[in-house]
Amino acid sequence: MRAVEGIRRRLGWKLFVSYLIVIAVGVLVLAGAVQLQTPSAIQRHVDRMESHLLSDPGLVEDLRQNFTEAVNEITLTAAMVALVVAVVVSVFTARRITNPIRTMMSASQNIAAGHFEQRVEVPSQDELGNLAKSFNQMAAELEQTEKRRLALIGDVAHELRTPLSNIRGIMEALMDGVLPAEPNSYASVQREVIRLQRLVQDLQELSQVEAGETYLDLSTVSPVALVNMVCERLRLQFEDKEVVLVVDVPENMPLVRADPARANQILLNLLGNALQYTEAGGQVTIRVQRQDSDVMFTISDTGIGVSPADVSRLFERFYRVDKSRSRATGGSGIGLTIAKHLVERQGGRIWMTSEGVAQGSVFAFTLSVAESQG
Ligand code: ADP
């Protein structure tokens, strides 16, 4: 019973037993065919020889018997040799198939134990080779995911450290009497707490967009209404900072397919950044243009600009050009990463260009024209 169970559970044994069945059937057919065929074949030869040996029935009978024995002996020896060779070959073939599978099995156990650098050798160019290639691809992706996870933990810890140590410093100064217990001192603590809250909110949103879990309520939206709404919301802040806001949106723009709240969030982020990184007296322009089956939104400013080396990294999470400056204004470097995911989830593209430091920046993204408008 145990042996049967063992065979059922092991591919190598299954292959071996299936070869063995094929060999046994082959040998049986061979033996059967020899037994059936031999008497008539011998009879034919003997009949032919009879004419030469003339009439000695004893000799003829002897001849027939010897012939039969010789054929049986040859058949048996050949079958035994064939059996031994076939068993050796089938063991070898079964091993060739099961060894790579066994290697992959132990590699997957290693990966499960956290050794993501594990790879297997590609044994051949057949299905087993393809399986090994897919396995290695899966391992490489798991390794990347693990690296991203570790980097994220490191980044989050780093981001939390600054506000927390600020709070600790203020509290210690308050307790030692170095800082007076007055509203201003408490307001500094509150500022840090607000920054922490914003960071946690951003992180939560980032994890949702990165996991593709953000729910999009797609509908048909007017780009003009979108831009007007965002500009209205930020107009006072532009006035306060004395930055001019220019809106260049033609009235005859087609409607786009988007989630209005998310599109609003993207525009707010880009326009808010443009305002933040532009000095008083500067200008921010928001423009909407049709481009084939897309509508392109462009937000350009005359602000601090970005060096060519930073341009390509701006949409990476936690990436800030000037960490101390951005941190002082509460920026965590997550806004553009979220914006990128949101644009791409809605089927668009987002990019930025800058002529260099102090040369201003241009951020642009697209949304698709709603189908009925195409
Ligand atoms: P933050 O909250 O730090 O602004 P973002 O993801 O929105 O995070 O932006 C990432 C970084 O990109 C910013 O820290 C800043 O260095 C740079 N950046 C964004 N917008 C502009 C802009 N209009 N001009 C210059 N630099 C910008």
Explain how this protein is built.
- The chain is an alpha+beta fold and 374 residues long.
- Helices cover 65% and strands 11% of the residues.
- The protein contains ten helices and seven strands.
- Helix 2 packs antiparallel against helix 3, helix 4 (127-176) runs antiparallel to helix 5 and helix 6 (223-241) packs parallel to helix 7 (260-276).
- 17% of the residues are buried.
- The mean pLDDT is 88.
- Adenosine-5'-diphosphate binds at residues 269, 273-274, 277, 301, 303-304, 306, 314, 319-322, 326, 331-336, 361.
Low-confidence stretches: none
Bound ligands, named by name, code or SMILES: adenosine-5'-diphosphate
Rounded to the nearest angstrom, the radius of gyration is 40 Å
Strand segment count:
7
Major β-sheet strand ordering: 2-4-5-7-6
What fraction of the residues are assigned to beta strands by DSSP? Answer: 5-15%
**Distance from first to last alpha carbon:** 70 Å
What is the 3D shape? Answer: elongated
Class per helix and strand makeup = alpha+beta
- Please tally the helical runs, counting DSSP H or I stretches of 4 or more residues: 10
Provide the helix percentage.
55-70%
Largest sheet: 5 strands, mixed
Oligomer: single chain
Overall mean pLDDT: 88
Order of helices and strands: HHHHHEHEEHEEHHHEE
